[in-house]
Amino acid sequence: MVKIAIDAMGGDFGPDPIVKGCIAALKRRSFEPILVGNKSEILSLLPKRYKDKILIIDTNDVISMSDAATDAVKRKDSTIYKAVELVRNGEADGIVSAGHSGATMTLATLRLGRLWGISRPALVTLMPTKTGRRSVLLDVGANVDSKPEHLAEFAIMGGCYAEDVLKIKNPSIGLLANGEESSKGNEVTKAAYKLLDGYPGFKGNVEGGDIFNGSCDVITCDGFIGNLVLKTSEGVASTISQLIKDYIRKSPIAITGALLMRKVFKLLKKEIDYAEIGGAPLIGIKGCAIVSHGKSNSKAIENAIYQAINYVDTGVNEHIIARVQELKQKES
Amino acid sequence: MVKIAIDAMGGDFGPDPIVKGCIAALKRRSFEPILVGNKSEILSLLPKRYKDKILIIDTNDVISMSDAATDAVKRKDSTIYKAVELVRNGEADGIVSAGHSGATMTLATLRLGRLWGISRPALVTLMPTKTGRRSVLLDVGANVDSKPEHLAEFAIMGGCYAEDVLKIKNPSIGLLANGEESSKGNEVTKAAYKLLDGYPGFKGNVEGGDIFNGSCDVITCDGFIGNLVLKTSEGVASTISQLIKDYIRKSPIAITGALLMRKVFKLLKKEIDYAEIGGAPLIGIKGCAIVSHGKSNSKAIENAIYQAINYVDTGVNEHIIARVQELKQKES
C-alpha cells in the first residue's frame, strides 16, 4: 500500500485542516498516512477510531514562513526534514507539505536527489480551461533563470505527468512565448524551441491566453515567468469577483439576480479554487513531493494526498527517465 | 492645436471604425485629425460636413498583419510610414494606428528616434484594478531580453506617464518579480532593483497579483513577460466569462438571475474592455505613437485619439528626459 508522509504542522492554520484532510482521504482511498509533527496535538485532533490506524512521527520543530529556505538543511528535526527522510529511507513513498514551500523543494531536491537526466526539478500546477479539462503548467516557481535545456526537460516531465496522472493520450506540449510564430520568443525560448522541435506532441510556441483555452495540454516556461502567470491569473480572478460583489451590493435587483445565480457562482468557484486541485507536485526528484498552499483547507490537503497517491501509483518517474534518455540521444 | 495623424486603413475591419472613431473624437475634443489612407474610401465614409474639416493624405499601400515588421522601413508609401513621416516632419504631433503593431513600433522608433537617455522605447498598457484606478504596466511587448538598465528606464518613463497623463501625484513604482522580498527575482530584476533603489516612488518588488489590487501605480517588466501577463489576464477574464455563460445556459433560474444582473455584467465588461482605454502608447520616442489593437472598434479609436492628444498636451516626453538625466547622474 502507498505510504504518504504528511507534514502535520506546516500550514498557516496549524494541524487542524491537515489532520481533517488526512481522515477525509482515508475514508475514500486506501493508503498508509504518516503524520509528522507534535504527537499530543495531533492525537487531540484524531477521532478515537483513527488513533491506531495512523502512524505519528513525533517532532516539535516547524520551519516557519519567515525562515530562509537555505537553512532548511540544518533543521534535521523539522517536520519537513523528517517527512523527506522517510521517503529517502524507503519508509514512505511521497510527502505532502503545506509548510514552507522553499524548504520543501530544497529538502526534497537535495535529500532525495534528481531523476536521471534531470538538471532541475520543476513545480507543476493545473490550470482551469474553457473546456473543463485542466492544462499542465510548469515550472511555476522552483527555478529562475532557466536555460533552454531546462525548459525542454520541463516539457518532457509535464508530458509524462499529463499522460500518466491525468490520463491524456498523446498530450500536446507548448512553449510559453510572446507569439505563436517560431520567430517569436526571447533568447532562451528560441533555443528551447530548437531542442524540442520534433519531440512527440510538441506544437511550438503558445501564448498566455492558450493556458486557459484548452488548446494545449502541457505548457513549459521558466519558474520566474510561471510564478508571474499564476499570480496574475489569481489576481484577475479575484479582481473580477471583487468587482462583481461591489456592483451587486449597490443594486437590490442585482442582489436578487445574484441569489438566482448562486449555483453558477458556486460552479465557477469550484473551477478556479486551488483546493480542488490540492497542491503542486515537485516533478523531477527521486520520489514524490506535493507542495501545498500555506492556506490549504482540509479539502486541499485531502486532494493533495490523492495527488501523491496517484503520482506514486502511476510510475511517472520511470516514464520521465525513459523519455529524457530519448531526448538526450537525439541531442548527441 | 494638436495634430494627430491616423492610420485609416490598418485595422482588421478596414477604415469604417477608424473614420467613425475620428468623427466621435472631433465632437468632444478640438484637434486636427489627418487621415492617412485610400482617399476615395475615406471620403465615402465621411459625412458631408466633415469633408472639409479633415485632411486626408492619399495612399494605397497597407502593411498587412502577415508582413514582417522588418520590411516596414522599405514600405515608404504605406499608411503607417506616411503617418510617422508627418510627425517626423513636424506636420503632426502624434500618430494612432490599429495596423501592424510591430511595423508601427519599428517605424516610430527608427524614423522618430529615441528620447535622450532612453535605450529602448516601451509599450504601455493600463490595467484595471480593484480600486477602479488603473495601473500602468510596461513594457508589454516592444522588447524581449531586456537588460537591468532597460527595466529602470521603463520604470522612470512609466512614472512620468502616471504623473502627467493619469495625474497621479508621486506614483509608486514596482518591479515585477516572483516575490516581494528584495532577495527574490531573476538575475535581471535583481540588478534592476539595485539601479532603482532610492529612486522616488520605488517600492521594490511587486508580484503578479499586485497589478490588479491597486497597491502600485506603475509596474516595470521585460516585454516578453509583460506580453505574457497581458495575454494571461485576457485569457482568465475570457475564460471566466465563458464559464459563467455556459453555466447560465443550463439553468432557467440562472438565466433570470443573469437578466437581473445585466447592469453588473455591463459595468464589469466596461472595466475590462480594452476599447475603454484605447491603445498602448509607445513611450520613449521623440513624438507620440499610440498602438491600437487590430480589432479596435470606433470607441477604441476614439479613446486612442484622446490618449494621443493628452500625451502631446502634457509634455510627458520632456519630463522623461529630465528624470532619466537624474538617474544617469546618480549611476555615474
Automatic annotation (TrEMBL), chains A, B:
GO terms for cellular component: cytoplasm. Pfam families: FA_synthesis (PF02504). It catalyses: a fatty acyl-[ACP] + phosphate = an acyl phosphate + holo-[ACP]. One of its GO terms (biological process) is fatty acid biosynthetic process. Its EC number is 2.3.1.274. The keyword Transferase applies. One of its GO terms (molecular function) is phosphate:acyl-[acyl carrier protein] acyltransferase activity. It comes from the Bacteria. SUPFAM superfamilies: Isocitrate/Isopropylmalate dehydrogenase-like. Keywords: Acyltransferase, Cytoplasm, Lipid biosynthesis, Lipid metabolism, Phospholipid biosynthesis, Phospholipid metabolism, Transferase. It is found in: Cytoplasm. Pathway: Lipid metabolism; phospholipid metabolism. Homodimer. Probably interacts with PlsY. HAMAP family: PlsX. Belongs to the PlsX family. Catalyzes the reversible formation of acyl-phosphate (acyl-PO(4)) from acyl-[acyl-carrier-protein] (acyl-ACP). This enzyme utilizes acyl-ACP as fatty acyl donor, but not acyl-CoA. This is Phosphate acyltransferase.
